[in-house]
Amino acid sequence: MIDQAERRVFQSEKVPATEKIVSIFEEHTDIIVKGSRDIQYGHKLNLSTGRSGLILDVVIEEGNPADSARFLPMRDRHIENYGKAPRQMAADGGYASTDNLHEAKALKVEDVAFHKKCGLKVEEMAKSPWVYRKLRNFRAGIEAGISCMKRAYGLGRCTWKGLAHFRAYVWSSVVAHNLALFGRLLPT
Asked: pLDDT per residue over 34-92, tens digit each?
């Protein structure tokens, strides 16, 4: 902290975000900037879900990688875990790019829906506007699941100390969410 303060104040040096210590209690904390919104501290999470709403995969990112750079690695993780690309994909607008769309289609993903089109045409992403709308609405449902995990399962604020415990905290929230969802999905 002293070195960082000396560099910034006395030497007028711009300290790169990767070298900044933003918490003396949790040194693993990252600076997360989301557009023009307020700066947040913590870790960026990438979640994959299935049609049922179950969370199938979680990646706890280091640093603040652009969402568009995480779309293909998340797709590749899905292929690695399940043996094939999904038939359809829905993602937040930050993941949208022409390259991401073409790479997904090259692996036989039939329909891709980005929440914000970012210059992409619906006809390029999905076989019809109806399919695009359905996938976009599905993505909105994922946001509801994330909100539920924050409110009901404590994902909004981790109280455990250390990076290993942070990872365990995130996964325990995911498991709790999935178990509750299993209970609702089971036939009565």
From this structure: 766 777 777 788 999 988 889 999 998 887 788 899 999 999 999 999 999 999 999 98
CB distance 34 to 156 below 8 Å: no
Nearest to 88 by CA among 140, 126, 129: 126
Type and span of the H or E element at 70: helix 67-82
CA angle 153–156–160, rounded 5-degree value: 80
Residue 33: helix, strand or coil by DSSP?
A: strand
> What confidence tens digit (pLDDT) does each residue in 83-115 have?
999 999 999 888 999 999 999 999 889 999 998
Contact indicator for 100, 74 with CB cutoff of 8 Å:
no
Q: What is the 3-state secondary structure (H, E, C) of 128-176?
A: CHHHHHHHHHHHHHHHHHHHHHHHHCCCCCCCCCCHHHHHHHHHHHHHH
- pTM given for the model: 0.76
* Angle of the 98-106 helix axis to the 67-82 helix axis, nearest 10: 10
Which DSSP letter does residue 52 get?
T
User: Coil, strand or helix: which one is 119?
Assistant: coil
Pairwise CA distance, residues 109 & 127, whole Å = 11
User: Residue 47: which H helix or E strand, with range?
Assistant: strand 45-49
Q: Is there a contact between 155 and 170 (Cβ–Cβ < 8 Å)?
A: yes
